[in-house]
Design brief:
The protein is mainly β. The protein has three domains: 115 residues, Immunoglobulin-like; 100 residues, Immunoglobulin-like; 142 residues, L,D-transpeptidase catalytic domain-like (Beta Barrel). The protein contains three helices and 27 strands.
């Protein structure tokens, strides 16, 4: 009597997966065969990229299912209570090839193994993202977890569902969707209050196979950072003074000069977060819409907004430090004060800026202005709110 030999089934996907089946075939002579139960029949259901892979069995049950991508990645999944339907936890990615390997058991206990390959079409557009802070960095207590997307995100809820933030101390926080200064879609995760020093933050963005509406993601992302010292910079433009506090104690008080009142050269107010310590850079007023007012190299430059507000050394304004606001919008100080202050502050430190004559509050997307939105309104910016 011959041993039943499994037949391999193929599945191909042009625009969507076509159904594919695999079943045992008994080729032994009829007179040598005992009456047998119908063989189990396996179907890989029709699926397109961005949907879970589903495998069903008829005339039997699924003993094991393994879905493996060409790069070796395995899509885990689970069967229903009756063992006749299996669904992958992750979605099939676009432009990927998979092999579905199944073991089924017929009613008479016979098991059959089959393999079925399929491919998904390449995406027309691929969406990518930029993460901040950088991986394995240490930042100040005001830095949000920020994601800027290369292409539009019209399916914000679908994307947000794939973003998992964990912290070492169960920090309460929420995603909020904002328009980045560049015009691109951006999602920031900020805590209800400033981070606690020492908090470790991890992001798992399981986006591979997710359609953003403007393009497909074809990979996952991982990042993490640590929160450093509790430092807050308080800038009083009316008193022309900057104060650096660490753990609630004053570390430095520096006379400064802010933006000139009464026009486009005024400073922003509200909370801005130190985005980068850029050192010596060229500052050109034409790049921020102020004509040809200045074009010079500036030392100890600390970026606070995308629109061009910095804290920096401004020795040409020495006569006004501590006395008057006469800058083109930045917070200027002496060379010596700027050098020592630059060494003390960290990327992510919040600058809380007050003053009667300013040009408005720092917007959420102009740097990291989420702290200027109260907690209730910030949570409402979540696509899952």
């Amino acid at each position: 009597m011959r041993t039943p030999r499994p037949a391999l089934a193929a599945a191909a996907l042009a625009v969507s997966l076509t159904a594919c089946t695999a079943q045992a075939v008994d080729e032994g002579p009829a007179e040598d065969r005992a009456p047998a139960a119908p063989p189990a029949k396996v179907t890989v259901a029709d699926r397109t990229a961005g949907r879970p892979v589903t495998v069903t069995a008829a005339n039997g049950t699924l003993v094991a299912v393994k879905v493996t991508a060409a790069d070796g990645t395995v899509l885990t999944g689970r069967a229903d209570g009756g063992g006749t339907r299996w669904t992958s936890d992750r979605k099939a990615a676009p432009g990927a090839s998979y092999t579905v390997e199944t073991t089924t058991r017929a009613a008479d206990g016979k098991e059959t193994t089959a393999r079925s390959p399929f491919s998904t079409p390449a995406p027309a557009k691929v969406n990518k993202l930029t993460l901040a802070p950088g991986k394995n960095t240490t930042v100040g207590i005001g830095h949000p977890l920020s994601i800027v997307f290369d292409l539009p995100v019209t399916k914000k809820a679908d994307v947000e569902k794939q973003l998992r933030v964990t912290t070492s101390n169960a920090t309460e926080g929420s995603w909020g969707w904002v328009r980045d200064w560049s015009g691109r879609d951006r999602a920031d995760w900020r805590p209800k209050e400033y981070w606690k020093p020492g908090t470790k933050v991890t992001l798992e963005a399981d986006l591979n196979g997710t359609d953003s509406g403007g393009g497909w993601f074809i990979r996952d992302y991982r990042t993490g950072f640590t929160v450093g010292a509790a430092q807050v910079v308080r800038v009083d433009l009316d008193r022309h003074r900057l104060t650096l506090e660490k753990d609630g104690r004053t570390v430095r008080t520096i006379p400064v000069s802010g933006g000139t009142p009464g026009g486009d050269k005024r400073s922003w107010r509200g909370t801005a977060v130190l985005m980068a310590k850029e050192g010596t850079i060229n500052m050109n007023s034409e790049t921020v819409g102020l004509g040809d007012a200045y074009d010079k190299m500036v030392d100890h430059s600390m970026r606070l907004t995308w629109s061009g507000m910095y804290a920096h050394a401004a020795p040409w304004n020495a006569a006004y430090f501590g006395r008057a606001n006469k800058s083109s919008g930045c917070i200027g100080m002496s060379d010596a004060d700027a050098a020592s202050f630059y060494a003390l502050v960290n990327v992510g430190d919040p600058f809380e800026i007050t003053g009667r004559d300013t040009k408005g509050t720092v917007a959420e997307g102009n740097g990291y202005g989420a702290w200027n939105v109260d907690w209730t309104r910030w949570r409402a910016k979540s696509a899952l709110g």
